[in-house]
Design brief:
The chain folds into 2 domains: 39 residues, no CATH class; 233 residues, no CATH class. Helix 8 runs antiparallel to helix 9. It is built from 10 helices and no strands. It is flat and about 70 Å long. It has 304 residues and is an all-alpha fold. 71% of the residues lie in helices and 0% in strands.
């Protein structure tokens, strides 16, 4: 006879009392002839579900809806960053993937390719593949960091990617961002985030600036935060849960603000400016909501 899953103890007490027997029976049935890795995977799924319920991060709660909003922007943001890092490495080296001094960067190149592919998968609506590719890219970057102790972008890159990965895997599994409207918004964000930064990169190469210049200042996050602020102002009102939507957009900007950890003494003004952009987007969304409510009360036509 199979014992109850250990993850059952992670569920909130009330939920465990109401559904504990059902969960244990389902676990026993699904793992009756399963191998040990399959049982571990089932335990992990139960533990993830239990923690979502305990911390109110399911799709029925505002926290889960905020993560569902943030996840695709975080995945595509990491892909934009990786694509620029890969392009920068190609432009900065004469024999890729070798850096100055002969240090090999094969894991980092592979990581950038995997992370870029994760963003493409997100835009294509293949969310499961995007999550797997993003995890692969993160592991490869850790190999580069631990094995060789160097990243072109400094210590901010692991923190930035870690935050993006947490947002991606925090998305509730029953609300994957695969809808056509969501993918259009994410594609618009990708275009408006990538083009200004790509122009900065190419300009830096033409002016013979330091090859890592665009990754050593929080100011490079301004175009990305501006794109997110516009999306918040334009699309937030159409959401059924505007507050969760606004929170999710703000969360998706966090990976781009990690430069402040090591450069805060000189970039506080830019950090405040980025916060102001997000605040302006939220206020615009709120003002449009008030206007819509007034029109509904007056019986006039609703703005689109």
């Amino acid at each position: 006879m199979n014992r109850p899953p250990r993850a059952l103890s992670l569920y909130p007490r009330a939920y465990r009392a109401a559904h504990g027997e059902e969960i244990a029976a389902h676990y026993a049935e699904s793992t009756a002839d399963a191998s040990r890795p399959e049982r571990w995977r089932e335990e992990a799924d139960l533990a993830a579900h239990a923690l979502r319920l305990r911390f109110r991060l399911t799709s029925d709660h505002s926290g889960g809806r905020a993560l569902a909003t943030a996840a695709p922007y975080a995945a595509v943001g990491a892909a934009v960053y990786a694509a620029l890092a890969g392009a920068q490495l190609v432009l900065a080296t004469t024999r890729p993937p070798v850096l100055h001094g002969g240090l090999p960067l094969v894991p980092q190149v592979a990581a950038d390719v995997a992370l870029t592919a994760a963003g493409v998968s997100t835009l294509a609506g293949r969310w499961r593949a995007a999550r797997c590719l993003m995890l692969l890219g993160t592991l490869l970057l850790i190999m580069q960091w631990v094995g060789y102790g160097i990243l072109l972008e400094g210590d901010s890159r692991p923190l930035s990617l870690g935050l993006a990965l947490a947002l991606v895997f925090g998305c509730p599994p029953d609300t994957p961002p695969v809808g056509r409207g969501q993918r259009r918004r994410t594609a618009a964000f990708a275009v408006f985030a990538l083009l200004p930064l790509l122009a900065l990169l190419l300009m830096g190469q033409l002016l013979l600036l330091e090859s890592t210049f665009m990754f050593t200042s929080i100011s490079t996050s301004v175009p990305v935060v501006l794109a997110l602020s516009v999306l918040l102002a334009v699309e937030g009102m159409r959401s059924a849960t505007p507050r969760a939507h606004a929170t999710g957009v703000a969360l998706s900007a966090l990976p781009w603000l990690t430069f402040c950890v090591q450069w805060l003494y000189g970039e506080l003004d830019t950090l405040l400016f980025c916060a102001g952009l997000l605040g302006a987007g939220a206020l615009t969304m709120w003002a449009r909501q008030l206007r819509r409510a007034d029109r509904e009360l007056d019986g006039g036509p609703l703005p689109r």
